[in-house]
Amino acid sequence: MSAGAAAGFEASAPEPAEETWRGLDRSEQALIIVLSLVGLALRVLGFFRYRFDSDEPQHLHVAWGWMTGLVQYRDLFDNHAPLFHMLTAPLLALVGERPDALLYMRLPMVPLFAVVVAATYVIGRRLYTQRIAIWSALILTLMPGFFLKTLEFRTDNLWIAVWMIALVVLTGGALTGSRIFLIGLILGIAFCVSLKTFLLIITVGGAALITYLLCERRPAAWPIVRTLLVALGGFVIVPAAVAAYFISVGAWKDLVYCNFTFNKLVGETRDNVWLWRAFFPIAMAVLLYEAWSVSRRREFDGSARWRFYFAVALALFLITLRSFWIMISTRDFLPLMPIGAIFLAALVARWRFTRPYLVPILACAGVVCAGFKLHYISPGGQQTRRDLAFTREVLSLTRKGEPIMDLKGESIFRPRPFYNIFEAISRAQMQQGLLRDTIPESMIAARCHVAIADNNFFPPRGRKFLNDNFLNLGSLRASGQWIAGDGSFNIAVEGDYVIVARGGEARGSLDGTPYNGPRKLAAGRHVFTSSGQAERLAVFWAPAYGRGYSPFHVKERQL
Question: What is the pTM of this model?
Answer without folding.
Answer: 0.90
